[in-house]
């Protein structure tokens, strides 16, 4: 495998995040080939996959295309997979994990094709070098993804291994935490770049605040990860990786921010967890944490950003009390946040209308399987726009 050869790279993400992911990929200097619900395709080398893994905030996995082919049966699948020079990619000492997504006329279960792919890979390695890797479900070694749709199939090297949306800073999750990639997407949707104050009441375990701080400092999202799928393939070059990592780290902002990041929660345990998580992420010195009711949050004068992700009843809290809280959020926005741009991240329309403000924009995201909206409110000074 030539590590400089340009191939299609499929970068997967949560539904609702593809536009933010595409913007991130473009900002790294890569061209977008296509975008789909839950993925973006670019065309670069295996070396570039390392950069994508290290930097991307809204992605799940970075998949480097090894082969695409017509495929009408599991026999054809085995034959085609056997044509990839796996002995040049995977050492018998490595652990192999195969992930498959299958949608064909004849097979409605991915288990059998998954086994066929695994067999084709280990059989070829055994034949070529007389030894074979072990395989299992663990994604800490070499990971290979099969997509088989109708009569077409694609086999990718999963250069991420474990999803890169797991940043490794959330040692204390607290209640209903947002996935880090979703939190990053929400912060990106607000346009925040560190040049304005950002206020995050109801911060829970601090995911939005930590992602905001990482964005403001231009710190790579993968900075805390030591393991990636790309490190386990034979062609991995540690020198290139170290050099790339150092260059990216050097480009991060140093010191403190001029503007403030304020994160509060009524629950002292949430703030304790948020502080610990921020410390692990190396951004605790940038965030002012406080235990208080959201309405008592300190809002600096000016025209910053305020984002609230309240409970929305499906997983936590009771509807009646929540309706009162949403009305109070509307009052907080009108009375304490004039001049700001306000955002509400919510998965329940019945509750979000209780805020009593007219949203200027509605952006769709998914929190797990729950369809959510990020609602934007222009909180003009002296004006009280009601719904
Ligand atoms: C959905 S969770 C936020 C999760 C957060 N985005 C994260 O990623 O961890 C909502 C948070 O609102 C807090 N909360 C509930 N009522 C509150 C109130 N009146 N004032 C401040 N915080 C409150 C809860 O303690 C909880 O941590």
Give an overview of the whole structure.
The protein is of the alpha/beta class and 387 residues long. The chain has ten helices and 15 strands. It has helices at residues 18-27, 46-55, 74-82, 111-129, 180-189, 207-216, 238-250, 268-281, 319-336, 349-352, and strands at 7-13, 32-36, 39-44, 59-70, 95-103, 134-135, 142-149, 152-158, 198-200, 261-265, 287-291, 305-308, 341-346, 361-367, 370-378. The strands form two sheets. Strands 2-3-1-4-8-7-5-6 form an eight-stranded mixed β-sheet. It has a seven-stranded mixed β-sheet with strand order 11-10-9-12-13-15-14. Helix 9 (319-336) links the parallel strand 12 (305-308) and strand 13. Residues 174-178, 183, 201-202, 204-205, 207-208, 265-267, 270, 293-294, 309-311, 325 line the site of S-adenosylmethionine.
Small-molecule components bound: S-adenosylmethionine
Range of strand content: 15-25%
Terminal CA distance: 59 Å
- Order of SSEs: EHEEHEHEHEEEHEHHEHEEHEHEE
For the largest beta sheet, what order do the strands appear in spatially? 2-3-1-4-8-7-5-6
Number of strands: 15
Quick check: average pLDDT?
95
Structural class by SSE content: alpha/beta
- Count of helical regions: 10
Radius of gyration: 23 Å
**Outline:** elongated
Q: Uncertain segments of ≥5 residues (pLDDT<50)?
A: 383-387
Q: For the report, how would you describe the main beta sheet?
A: 8 strands, mixed
Helix content: 25-40%
